[in-house]
Amino acid sequence: MAPHFVFPQNLRALEEEDEPADYDSRIYAQSPVDIASMRPVQLEEFVKGVAFDLSDKELFCIEEQDVLDRVYSLIRGFSSLTPSCKLNLVESLRSNLSVLLPNVDSLSRVSQGQDHEAPVLDRLTSYRNAFKIYTFFLMHIVLAEESNTSHSNNQKVTATARKKQPMNSWNWEAQRSRILNLIANSLEINLSLLFGSSDPDENYLSFVVKNAFSLFENATILKDADSKESMCRIIGACATKYHYTEQSCASVMHLIHKYDFVVIHMADAVSWAEKKYADGTLASSIIREIGRTNPRTYVKDTVGAENIGRFLVELADRLPKLISTNIGLLVPHFGGESYKIRNAIVGVLGKLVWKAFKDIDGEVSSKSVRLRTKQAMLEILLERCRDVSAYTRSRVLQVWAELCEQHSVSIGYWNEVAEVAAGRLEDKSAIVRKSALNLLIMMLQHNPFGPQLRIASFQATLEQYKKKLNELEPDISSESVTNDNETCNDDGEVDNVQTEGVDKEQQESLSDSFVPHIEEGIPNQDSSVPDVGNLEQTRALVASLEAGLRFSKCVSATMPTLVQLMASSSASDVENTILLLMRCKQFQIDGAEACLHKMLPLDKSIYEAVENAFITIYIMKNPVETAKNLLTLALDSNIGDQAALEFIVDVLVSKGDISTSTISALWDFFCFNVSGTTAEKSRAALSVLCMAAKSSAGVLGSHLQDIIDIGFGRWAKVEPLLARMACIAIQRLSEEDRKKLLISNGSRVFGILESLITGFWLPDNIWYAAADKAISAIYTIHPTPETLAAELVKKSLSSVFDCTGGDELQNDINSTSILTTVQVSKLGRYLFVLSHVAMNQLVYIESCVRKIQKQKIKRDKMAADDQNAHDSDITNTDLPKENGINAELGFAASEDAMLDSLSERAEKEIVSGGSGEKNLIGQSALFLSKLCRNFSLMHKYPELQASAMLALCRFMIIDANYCDANLQLLFTVVESAPSEIVRSNCTIALGDLAVRFPNLLEPWTENMYARLRDPSVSVRKNAVLVLSHLILNDMMKVKGYINEMAIRVEDDNERISNLAKLFFHELSKKGSNPIYNLLPDILGKLSNQNLKRESFCNIMQLLIGSIKKDKQMEALVEKLCNRFSGVTDIRQWEYISYCLSQLSFTEKGMRKLMESFKTYENALSEDFVMDHFRNIINKSKKFAKPELKVCIEEFEEKLNKFHNEKKEQEVTTKNAQIHQQKVATMEGFVVDKNAREGSAESDISEDVSDGEVVDSSMEGIPESQNNVSRSQFDDSEEHSGASSEVTEMETGDDEVQSPRTNTKGASRSRVKKSNVKDVKGNISASNRKNTRLKQR
């Protein structure tokens, strides 16, 4: 019998000889040659000889011993061969195997024509041996060369290795793909002719599969498409065609768990096997193996769980129908703890819904089953939106977005998905909110209802088609018509009969939907409704319109939530919200336009997203439409929005996004050149132009005359704010345009401004804002503004008093009876003009000083340049010497000091005047001070008080002496003024004063913090803003009153609460986090205040949460523990322990807590305190290492033991007190003498026949005790209701009884009956007192 070739365990094992009993039963290498000792020439000749024999002899010559030994020797030393030798050997082996494969079929035909079986069997054995040996050697060549290649790749690449190789060199990648392709082809022929059965022997399959899977571990091979395809064919053929499934499944699972890069390639191999052989056995086996795996395994093996999840999704993408039949094996993993597996199954369901149910051909029953399966998958996806893991919730929403994009969501489920997405907008996780926003964007983009989703349009169209439907079915009652809000049946899906024909058209594209055609008929509702077909089609259309209306209402209802998300601290929230609002505006969702306005005053961190949205929505239009959009924004914006709008317009003008054509269109609106322009639109156009002038100064210069004529002309009386805007435009003029204005219309402009300030043609509510800007405009463009300002003050004064000087003013001050309603209004205006002029004078002085300083710097720089230029000239050597002497003598410093002195003197002269004389403003300042102190007059005229206090605050900001003199008055008003407007203004002024004169305000710090307790919301809000500004900008030190700011975190007003939280958030970013140092003090003060427990916990949770450093946390542990020993209040113990439980404990922090046990041991008797310590222990166990965990468990036992001991001590103490009270009660219940003489004496004479009374401490004689107690009970019940209550209460108390001791021979105290009465009478007073206390 011819020997057989058996695949050895490895290449070297081919040399091993079998046992003598099995001699000649196996082919092996008997005499290998050591090629390492050969010279290159000899080796090359040796290889050529082997190649010649392989090509010249028969195909199965490889089983000849000599040939086998020589080939084996070359394969064993393959890595040491030269490239040409490798090429010759590989080509010889590969060509022989490739010729052998087609000969298998010819061998079958020859064997059928011969009669003798023995020669045929021998020949068949030779072919089988040759097939195995060629496969064995070729596969080992691949393994050896790949091992050598990977080893060389790990080494550093030298310069020579990067040189271009010659064309005839060894190209391993091409050879590898040819070899693997040949082995794959060998598996696809009819191998049953060689192996005599349907499957090859397991030895052969095991060898091929094992080495093929080992090649998958090499990522380099997988990059070669041809090699990868051949490897996939090998695995597919072995696992499917030759039923080597179980071992292949195990290898696939091993590779997926171990290597992440192999996941996609394994999915390709498995799907190729199913498609090639129409057999999904391998895929089904893998899914069953995954389904059988314990879910807890994936919790520990997170990498493996992620790889398995990716594999499942990839496989579902390639084999959706096969996976849909096996999905039941995977669904139980939804109950596992690994969110990665749940994410994967969610992705699998998404792929199946998209791809597995596209083919709707077949029988009705199978179609119904497939539809029910799809519906069940959709229900699971809806349910998973409430998964406990945020990652899974986010993944589900992403899958829904993919399904919407692929038009795989029916109308019946559309609104359910929309409602789920709207609900997830309020999810606590940012990634879930992001996915929900993206889902809504995708649903709008691919909605099946039309490009316009206005609620009114849907309602109008729906009503028309409902009427049409009623006409088509007159016999059906109106009850069958569904309501507007009912769009689907109980199962959440519109009947397929009604929507099947509609759904196909709707899901093709938006233009194919019914709504665009329907909306054409909306303006003419009386016209006939377009006919859409028969009764069934009309019903389907009505159902579709109802679903569309529900969807539009659902998206519109999310607008308040979207406004909240725009204020989120997460940049992704804001950016995606803006994108969603842009999409909502595109589809005309109700409320989207108003929400988009909220994006303007946003943080600079997401400015890019805001700018892109702004350009897309408002700027990327034609110039007239862009101008209209900007006008609308300017009209509808509040002060904060206008500041943000000004910033973004400034940027866009500088970038050129707002073109000159848009600027021209704005001027047309301002000049009323566009029909339909109103005064409000003209004012808004000028406002936008003023915004643009910040970056382009020449914008306003071309229409100076129009600004004057329209801004201060007749249109200003129609729109009073137009005059204010014209004043702002004058301030924004460039230097060149200001000069032109002064030359051409200077006197006219100043006359107009003067009439605006001193005249009465503007209403009061507009005049103050206009006069403010008018005075500022005068100080901006007038060459000597102080002269014109003086005239303004005098004219304003003369309109109030018939005087022009200070003396007459003082006379009028003393006579307040002349005030009338008209004079009060004029006085308020005068005080405003006076104070605003004074404030602008201060600003003007500072600007003049800055100009002088700039000129000095410029002059010094020119002198330095001249010195450098003439440094080499001999004639100018005296100049630098002179400058050096001036510097040494300090003339430059004296010049700066002189400038500072002049500036300080000029500022003082504004209010105080010079040389002891008071100017008009100074005289008015004295009058103002006296006026503000006249509280009865101020309370009578609150509007006058507002103007007076505002003027007083401005004067105080200007002059330090005046400020010091009136600080007491200011704080009196800010605390006691009945008007919250006055208190708010004064609170804001305190912030300005603290910046200008910090030393004067420092003693009043507590009074400033007291404004946080003001009953008015506006005052508290302004106080929070002012203090936040001062503290965060280091203008005020954080004093011991910061607890007042902490209380505002729990303010009833949400705006104030958010501002306080923002303050502490920003404070925590400063330096080394000041909150760490402030926390113990805040804790102590909050504990002593009457705060709700919930409010205290929320405040401390916020403060402790802002401390991130481990060292600070550890130090706080020690600080808080030390506070236990300083307090005895149980409530403070509870608060301190709560704060400890909120800390993030490290190992060092836990050890500090254990070491500080003595400080808090007394507090452990309280249950609340103990609960907080248990929370600390539970959290610490999660991160603790084994050593620390043991310590924590011992510490826990110690705490529990001490707690129980303390509780027992308390119970014992309580019972002792109860026992003492009982004893006192037993001895002390005495009735009144008059009521007791009859019955009490008889009772005592009966009970104590000897005249002896048993001592209360003796329990040895139960009869006497029972008698005494019985007499007590009778007396108390008969004579005292209070004592009966006490007795009942005491008998219900739990008492730990001490063991009784019978005392024999106890002495008895003998007393007379009268003595007994005296004793009881003496005790009765204290007994009644105790009774009253208990009742109380």
TrEMBL record:
| All residue ranges annotated as the Condensin complex subunit 1 C-terminal domain in the record | 981-1141
User: Which stretches are tagged as biased composition: Acidic residues?
Assistant: 1243-1253, 1287-1296
Q: Which residues form a coiled coil?
A: none
What SUPFAM superfamilies does this protein's entry cite? ARM repeat
Instruction: Spell out the subcellular localization from the entry.
Output: Chromosome; Nucleus
Record's keyword terms, sorted: Cell cycle, Cell division, Chromosome, DNA condensation, Mitosis, Nucleus
All copies of the Condensin complex subunit 1 N-terminal domain together span 84-246
Renumbered to this chain, the Polar residues biased-composition regions fall at: 477-486
Q: Which residues lie within the region annotated Disordered?
A: 473-495, 1236-1336
Query: Which Pfam families does the record cross-reference, listed alphabetically?
Result: Cnd1 (PF12717), Cnd1_N (PF12922)
Report the protein's function: Regulatory subunit of the condensin complex, a complex required for conversion of interphase chromatin into mitotic-like condense chromosomes. The condensin complex probably introduces positive supercoils into relaxed DNA in the presence of type I topoisomerases and converts nicked DNA into positive knotted forms in the presence of type II topoisomerases.
Which protein family is named in the record?
Belongs to the CND1 (condensin subunit 1) family.
Q: Which PANTHER family match?
A: CONDENSIN, CONDENSIN COMPLEX SUBUNIT 1
Question: What is the official name of this protein in its record?
Answer: Condensin-1 complex subunit CAP-D2
